[in-house]
Amino acid sequence: MKNIKQLTLQIINRVNANLSGFGFDTGIFTLNAIEYDKLAKFYSSYGITARHPINFHFKHSNMAGSYFLGNCYVGRSIIYKSDIRGDELKRKGDIFDRKNPVPLLKDETIAITYSLLYKTLVHSNSHNPETPEEFTIRNTVSAHYANIHGSTIAGCFLGAFSTIDLMNLHSCIVGEFSYIQTGELFHTKIEPGIVWVKSDDFEFRYQFPEDVLDKYIGVNGHFQPRGIIYKFVKELEPGYEEIFALVNLEGIKTPKTSAVNRYAVIKGKTEIGGNVLVSQRAYLDNADMGDGSNAQENTYIINSKLAGFNITAHGGKIINADMGLHVFVGFNSFLHGREDARLTVGRECIIMPHTIIDIKAPLSIPDNHLVWGFIKSEKDLKLNSIPLEELGRSKGPLKMGRMIFKGNGGRFIKAFSSRIEHILEGNGAFFDGKGKRGHAQDDKNISFNTIQPYTSGDNAGIYPSIRIKP
Question: What whole-number distance in Å separates Cα of residue 110 and Cα of residue 113?
């Protein structure tokens, strides 16, 4: 165990060096999060398909309970129960930037060095023109259920349930349950519970009240999470332990155009339609997945019906709800109806990332609305939603409760709509039997391979250095 403890200190020191201006000690989280005995117990798995280039290189690292797909290099890092997806990595010859059409000289690789990713989701699709052939995560610590989505990152700390999306982050602290999509940030501290989307054309900003944040996603003095949402996830974790304990597990029957990952939990009377993608660590219980829908990593769909072409982004939770066609549910959102008080969401609605809807009486959200923030009643809904058509006409500052919107509303909606179509297309929602195939079809036949760490001696918890190539 000696070497992995030394590795932990090396990671802490490197991250702290980047964050020295904030007086922040990453060790307060890290040394209280790691249970060293568990790092030597779990196997790691990597997926192989005919459609994803293979080049896995693992060196002097721990990867307990983690899953990898696509080109990955992991060096001197600890990756615990995390998902590293490289299914949108660029290929040799691809054009990264249409304004500067220089083709890539080699296949893009996810490169993780001197980092601790704790129950973190990493998804490729880099937007960093400085490193087009390498999706980089270095000198970084991320806490429970954080999302690193299409974002290169260096020298940062990400709090529990935080998300950085389609951007580049340098020497920053992102507070728990904050969502950031702002292009690029340097040496910035983001307070907890902020939802911030910014471009040249618009800016959306919302901050949760402190008492609400503390109730749903708070942290203790060691930055370990607590609260209603964490308790919900923690209580269902044993379902994943059961499937990860089995190396060979037969999957459920699905239409030939749909894929349900071997590491997804499927319970109750769950129905899977055509062109459906259910990713690893998705949790479905009495879920009706309409045609073209998807459940991404760390999502929970329980006692709910998705009409079709629905996106449940990483970490989204839908309980006792009926979702109309083409509804988008953003990262780490918590939509919680009750058996006797169901939530109904109309078609073409956009639920912003990190939205909390927790109701005790039935609630219906009309078609074509943007929804955000904290909602527990009809009154809250009026203050935290707006018809897309009305927002589309907005040209100036708009303030509703704790939300402030600036810029061009029409361009904001267009950007969101384009991204939703891109996700559906990438996931194979529009596959017609010949064209428009995507992850739901390509992930149908993944083979899984496992590697295990040393279980005793100085190297206990360290995985042997290994390289897997075609």
Answer: 10
Spatial CA neighbour of 269 closest among 287, 243, 250? 287
pLDDT class of 245 with cuts at 50, 70, 90: low
Task: Judge if 171 and 275 occupy the same domain.
Answer: no
State how beta strands 44-48 and 447-451 pair: antiparallel
Give the integer Cα–Cα distance in Å for 89 and 349. Answer: 29
Dump the DSSP string for 125-166: ----TTSTTEEEEES-EE-TT-EEES-EEES-EE-TT-EEES
pLDDT in tens, 297-311: 999 999 999 999 999
Look at residue 285 and give its three-state secondary structure: strand
Strand order in the sheet with 173-174: 78-80, 116-118, 141-142, 157-158, 173-174, 189-190
> Which pLDDT tens digit goes with each residue over 170-181?
999 999 999 999
- Secondary structure element (H or E) that encloses residue 96, with its range: strand 95-97
Give the sheet arrangement for strand 311-312, strand by strand. 259-260, 277-278, 294-295, 311-312, 328-329, 350-351, 369-371, 385-387
Each residue of 188-219: b (16+ CB within 10 Å) or e?
Answer: eebebbbbbbbeeebbbebbbeeebbebbbbb
The answer to whether 88 and 124 are in contact (CB under 8 A) is yes
Clarify whether residues 205 and 273 are in a common domain. no
Asked whether residue 220 falls in the same domain as residue 336, the answer is: no
Is 240 among the domain residues? no
Predicted local confidence at residue 397, as pLDDT: 93
Neighbours of 394 (CB within 10 A): 18
Query: Which residue has 């303030």 as its token pair?
Result: 399
Tokens standing for residue 131? 């490193």
Q: How many CA atoms lie within 13 A of 71 on its CB side?
A: 18
Say whether 28 sits in a helix, a strand or coil: helix
DSSP per residue, 169-202: EES-EE-TT-EEE-SEEES-EEPTTEEEEE-SSE
Tens digit of each residue's pLDDT (9 = 90 or more) over 372-386: 999 999 999 999 999
67 in the same domain as 151: yes
Q: Is residue 266 part of a domain?
A: yes
DSSP secondary structure string for all residues of 410-422: HHHHHHHHHHHHH
- Dist. CA 385–CA 406, nearest whole Å: 16
Q: How far apart are CA 189 and CA 196, in angstroms?
A: 13
458, part of any domain: yes
CATH number at residue 298: 2.160.10.10
Instruction: With respect to residue 87, please indicate whether it lies within any of the assigned structural domains.
Output: yes
- Identify the domain containing residue 107 by its residue range: 2-233+453-468
SS3 442: helix
218 and 293 belong to one structural domain: no
Report CA-CA distances (Å) from 57 to 42, 111, 334, 400: 19, 9, 36, 49
